[in-house]
């Protein structure tokens, strides 16, 4: 029943994405990270949170979700605080100036990077090698997403932007790679220590969260298209295609674990 409900919500989510693209194309919605667009992205994070909770149980799933949300939201908030004199008010939904939209985006994103990297490395028998390669792949995917999202988010925050990667701060990209590495290492250690790494409770939902991940990518590619950020678009699409192909090549039928 949970799997059917999750898949039904996914179809609603896909329909919502297509409607959002249509309304933006017709200039009903602005091609920026506005409040209406933020609501869609918050739903992406809810999908990611539900995935973690369903696969690893309420306690562990909530712990992983809160860890991702708290850390990434704090980083985004600090970035905005450092540029407070330049930042505009349009950064999606905020609570006391804290950009919660970005926290939800990262929950959905990391749910996708986690499952893709996990599948690629699942058959490795050496624990430390598996964990290291898993974290490196995931961190690289996070870095690539940052390359795509940075110009769009800078536009939403009303910060100075010229034409794509030329204005990206390389230190920010490196910092997000490091953060992605640390977060995924923590996830790996948590799941390994609790014997949850090897099996998912609902393995048939693996590809569903990959679809959610790609919808998030497609959403920011769509917004980047309106700003002519072709370098970011090409890097984001090509790199994610490579990782996703590796995911499907590595895809293995897992035995469904007992939810209890």
Notes on the structure:
By secondary structure, this protein is mostly helical. It has one domain. 73% of the residues lie in helices and 0% in strands. It is built from eight helices and no strands. It has helices at 2-25, 35-56, 58-82, 100-121, 127-156, 170-193, 206-226, 230-250. The model is unreliable at 85-90 and 157-168 (pLDDT under 50).
Offer a quick outline of the entry.
The protein is an all-alpha fold and 260 residues long. The chain is built from eight helices and no strands.
Topology, pairings included?
Layout: H1 2-25, H2 35-56, H3 58-82, H4 100-121, H5 127-156, H6 170-193, H7 206-226, H8 230-250
Helix pairs in contact: 1-2, 1-7, 2-3, 2-4, 2-7, 3-4, 3-6, 4-5, 4-7, 4-8, 5-6, 5-7, 5-8, 7-8
The fraction of residues in strands falls at under 5%
Number of helices: 8
Order of helices and strands: HHHHHHHH
- Unreliable residue stretches: 85-90, 157-168
Average pLDDT level: 82
Shape: globular
Radius of gyration: 18 Å
The structural class is: mainly alpha
Major β-sheet, in short?
none
Q: Would you count the extended β strands for me?
A: 0
**Helix residue percentage:** over 70%
Structural domain count: 1
Task: Measure the end-to-end span.
Answer: 15 Å
């Amino acid at each position: 029943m949970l799997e059917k409900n999750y898949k039904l919500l996914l179809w609603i989510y896909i329909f919502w994405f297509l409607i959002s693209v249509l309304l933006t194309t017709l200039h009903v919605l602005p091609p920026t990270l506005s409040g209406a667009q933020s609501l869609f992205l918050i739903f992406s994070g809810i999908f990611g949170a539900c995935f973690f909770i369903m696969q690893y149980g309420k306690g562990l799933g909530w712990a992983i979700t809160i860890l991702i949300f708290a850390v990434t939201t704090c980083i985004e908030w600090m970035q905005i605080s450092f540029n407070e004199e330049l930042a505009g008010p349009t950064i999606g939904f905020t609570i006391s100036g804290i950009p919660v939209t970005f926290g939800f985006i990262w929950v959905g994103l990391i749910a996708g990077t986690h499952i893709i990297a996990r599948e690629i490395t699942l058959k490795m028998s050496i624990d430390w090698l598996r964990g290291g390669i898993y974290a490196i792949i995931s961190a690289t995917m996070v870095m690539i997403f940052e390359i795509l999202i940075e110009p769009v988010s800078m536009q939403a925050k009303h910060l100075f932007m010229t034409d794509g990667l030329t204005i990206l701060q390389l230190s920010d990209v490196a910092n997000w790679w490091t953060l992605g590495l640390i977060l995924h290492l923590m996830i790996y250690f948590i799941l390994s220590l609790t014997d949850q790494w090897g099996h998912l409770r609902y393995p048939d939902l693996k590809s569903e969260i990959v679809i959610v991940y790609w919808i998030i990518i497609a959403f920011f590619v769509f917004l980047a298209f309106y700003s002519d950020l072709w370098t970011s678009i090409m890097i984001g699409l090509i790199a994610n295609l490579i990782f996703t192909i590796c995911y499907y090549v590595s895809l293995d039928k897992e035995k469904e674990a007992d939810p209890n």
